[in-house]
Design brief:
four-stranded mixed beta sheet, 14 helices, about 450 residues, binds flavin-adenine dinucleotide, alpha+beta, 20 strands
């Protein structure tokens, strides 16, 4: 049996884990940092470009965000943007590209909602965001207007400061930047799955088969699995996750930029939207759908048991589920989305209820189900409040952090890394050069 010892171990090589590795290795004096990833490469799950919507979320076109959540998201997105701006041009172009974006309001109620939000706080928080009417939409995105019923009231909030991001490439860039610039303090192990974790005195011991890894501080950046590990240590029994899968459909390119739809406030996931694909300029992606699953990893039925363990059913869980599903908007969204998974009929229904609401002239034959595409959003249930939490969650314990990361987790990865770095250095009595981080972020 081999034992390895570290100051900090990060489990998970998606964008959350790699950004933390980058920040710790560049801006702290922590001596031995290890990142462990179970697959053979970084970001093969939710951070992979095929499994998410590739949107750098700022909070300007996400009508389900509160003002407070939008402010936080904007700050985090600007930080990430700053990192990418300093990358060499060729690397940057593959990882992030600018595009226009809009939130489209269809019908009196939606138009009224965006107008209210725009005048109340969006306009001030996002000075580049402009309100356009039906004619304006037609000039920017002709296919959104073409073939639409003439009676439909239409308006949009438009920004030219949209970005599509390959978060998988971003993760690789963080990891390479960390290992390359750390003078041997940061290391990465790929293809090593952490099976379990235990607390021994001041240390945590992580097990992978017969090998063990001892550490003074452990961070789980394992997406939906983070809560699984937290619960295995007896931490935070008041949280559960709804495992929300999302599918996508492809069409030939019909949009010039991102077109989001109005989502009702308080619903933690975006309504289906149309997006360009950073990896393929000839297509438009429509999605993600909202499918409640019982897995911690998409298309991995071997994770069902772990999901059930994470769910940790008790009376509070049942009360929370009852409360969540009593919300008629959530029931309507989930019910409609459940139909999209039915063969043939599902596609027809998706076309009518979602894709054609954005681009009315799309034909059945244009729409292709994107096989093997779409990840899992671990939407967090707060069993004390008996409701879903908007955005990512963090459980902080003595010597351990667990990051649970639904959208906009990828956009907020550096902000999350900053928070974690502050906690870790405080607990370990290490130095964090916050000013260097703020001033020098991205200078690699
Ligand atoms: C359909 C969909 C659309 C989305 N759209 C957006 C968007 O447009 N913008 C946005 O900002 N966010 C979006 N998100 C959310 C975003 O994808 C996630 O917040 C982000 O990718 C989370 O990154 P992560 O590193 O925390 O998790 P992941 O990318 O899931 O990485 C977790 C890593 O942990 C590893 N791991 C797990 N268990 C172990 C173990 N036992 N041992 C070792 N390694 C382990 C996994 O292999 C994986 O590499 C979307 C998500 C989905 C599903």
């Amino acid at each position: 049996m081999l034992t390895h010892e570290y100051d900090v171990i990060i489990v998970g090589g998606g964008v959350t884990g790699t950004s933390l590795l980058y920040v710790l290795s560049r801006y702290t004096d922590i001596r031995k940092i290890l990142l462990v990833e179970k697959y053979d490469d970084f970001a093969l799950l939710n951070s992979n470009s095929s499994n998410n919507s590739q949107t750098l979320h700022f909070g300007d076109i996400e009508t389900n965000y509160s003002e407070e959540h939008a402010k936080k998201t904007k700050k985090a997105a600007e930080r990430l943007l700053r990192y990418t701006e300093a990358l060499p041009k060729a690397v940057k172009e593959e990882m992030i590209r600018g595009c226009q974006k809009m939130v489209l309001a269809v019908g009196e109620d939606e138009v009224e909602l965006i107008d209210k939000m725009y005048s109340k706080w969006l306009k001030e928080l996002f000075p580049g965001l402009i309100r356009i009417d039906s004619e304006g939409v037609g000039k920017i995105e002709p296919n959104v207007v073409k073939g639409r019923k003439t009676g439909d009231k239409l308006a949009a909030l438009l920004s030219d400061k949209g970005y599509m991001v390959d978060f998988g490439k971003l993760a690789t860039s963080f990891a390479n930047g960390a290992v390359g610039g750390s003078n041997g303090r940061a290391d990465v192990l790929k293809g090593v799955k952490i099976d379990s974790v235990e607390r021994r005195g001041e240390l945590y011991v992580l097990w992978s088969g017969n090998e063990s890894y001892k550490t003074r501080f452990v961070v789980f950046a394992t997406g939906a699995y983070s809560l699984f590990f937290a619960k295995s240590l007896g931490y935070d029994r008041n949280l559960s996750v709804l495992s929300i899968g999302g599918n996508f459909y492809y069409t030939p390119k019909v949009l010039n930029g991102k077109v989001y739809r109005v989502q009702i406030g308080g619903i933690p996931f975006a309504a289906v939207h149309g997006d360009p694909d950073i990896t393929n300029p000839n297509i438009t992606r429509f999605g993600p759908t909202v499918t409640v699953g019982i897995q911690l990893e998409r298309r991995h039925s071997d994770t069902i048991l772990d999901y059930l363990r994470t769910f940790d059913f008790d009376i509070k869980t049942l009360e929370s589920l009852w409360n969540i599903f009593s919300d008629k908007d959530i029931r309507r969204i989930l019910g409609r989305n459940a139909i999209y998974d039915i063969p043939f009929f599902g596609k027809h229904s998706f076309l009518k209820n979602e894709a054609a609401k954005i681009v009315p002239s799309i034909k059945h034959g244009d729409l292709k189900f994107a096989n093997g595409v779409g990840g899992i959003r671990p939407q967090i249930i707060d069993e004390d409040k008996k409701s879903l939490i908007l955005g990512a969650g963090k459980i902080v314990e003595d010597g351990a952090i667990f990051n649970i990361t639904p959208s906009p987790g990828a956009s907020s990865c550096l902000e999350s890394a900053l928070e974690d770095a502050i906690t870790i250095t405080k607990q370990l009595g290490a130095e964090f050069r916050k000013d260097d981080f703020e001033n020098g972020l991205g200078l690699i």
